[in-house]
Write a structure and sequence with these properties.
By secondary structure, the chain is mainly α. Helices cover 73% and strands 1% of the residues. Helix 1 (2-28) packs antiparallel against helix 2. 43% of the residues are buried.
Length: 316
């Protein structure tokens, strides 16, 4: 028990230490590309962690989560291009605006979708995401199917976000803050009730809990955090496109959640790291690297049902 408890705290501390020195090591070895790769990994971990709140904690399997991710990216891109050279380029305006837009969309989508359950919920969230995808494909003013480019990354007072190293540390700080928030949320009354709804919603209703309101609140929180991930990815790539809203992006995030561990606080990070590292390594050997990923997914489902975070004894 003592060793297990120690391991639970050892891995997070080791991960944080590695994250802090990672850019310095990459630059020192002349592998600057991996600084950008590290930022992308953390952003995808943020997206997966937001989805894990829905799927792993609340039991709401959404196939439309990419809609909030993509809208956050577009909100940042539109603010940057339409208000170029003004407040639109400031991160303290553009990023909260992206979160607000995604949260508002999540409120509308959730208010309708959460009146259904099971496969109907999966399909209706998928339908909303695909509708938004086709809307932005048709908006030629914002690039249509070709997407739109950002002239530069957002500005943040005193920091040069144009530097990949600086941007990495900003993303790391935001991800750590979100992880801390999700950890406290999971331990709160809200998190306990949400887990209870996942286990038996009818019983929670009989206890007097307004389950619909709890699920809607979780849906909005998850959508808002996905919007932040989209805003960061827009800055990372200096480009946004409707493909960020496509159902395949929701599927990728769901795969990361399953790989990392459903309901685990560290599941999003573990799953994103595993997925992106496997993609980076296996794609160098074959174009069909997804086959190997499928085999690994089967192994995780059968032999590690709590995901990679469970194997590392950091599951919640």
């Amino acid at each position: 028990m003592v060793l297990r408890t120690a391991a639970r705290y050892l891995w997070p501390v080791a991960a944080l230490a590695l994250a802090l020195v990672f850019p310095k090591l990459a630059v020192a070895f002349g592998q600057d590309y991996y600084v950008s790769f590290g930022s992308r990994l953390l952003i995808m971990a943020l997206l997966a962690s937001s989805l894990n709140l829905l799927v792993g904690v609340g039991g709401m399997v959404s196939m439309g989560h990419a809609a909030f991710y993509g809208l956050g990216a577009y909100a940042t891109g539109i603010a940057s291009t339409q208000w170029a050279g003004t407040i639109g380029e400031h991160a303290l305006l553009a990023w909260p605006l992206a979160m607000l837009a995604s949260g508002a969309l999540a409120l509308g989508v959730g208010a309708i979708s959460l009146r259904t359950r099971g496969v109907y919920f999966i399909m209706i969230t998928l339908a909303f995401a695909q509708m938004l995808y086709y809307v932005f494909v048709s908006l030629k003013a914002f690039g249509g199917d070709d997407g739109m480019s950002l002239a530069r990354r957002s500005r943040l007072a005193g920091l040069d976000l144009g530097s990949d190293v600086t941007f990495y540390y900003v993303v790391l700080a935001l991800f750590a803050a979100v992880l801390l928030f999700l950890g406290r949320l999971g331990e709160s009354r809200f998190g306990v009730v949400l887990r209870g709804i996942k286990d038996n919603e009818t019983r929670m209703e009989s206890f007097g809990f307004a389950t619909y309101r709890f699920k809607l609140a979780a849906f909005v929180i998850a959508g808002t955090l996905a919007g932040l991930a989209g805003a960061l990815m827009a800055n990372q790539n200096s480009f946004v496109s409707p493909n960020m809203m496509h159902w395949e992006q929701s599927g990728v995030a769901l795969v990361m959640v399953v790989l990392g561990g459903l309901g685990s606080l560290w599941g999003g990070l573990a799953g994103a790291a595993a997925f992106l590292l496997l993609e980076e390594l296996l794609s160098g050997f074959t174009r069909h690297w997804q086959i190997a990923l499928g085999v690994i997914m089967l192994a995780v489902v059968f032999f590690a049902p709590r995901g990679l975070a469970g194997l590392l004894s950091v599951e919640r």
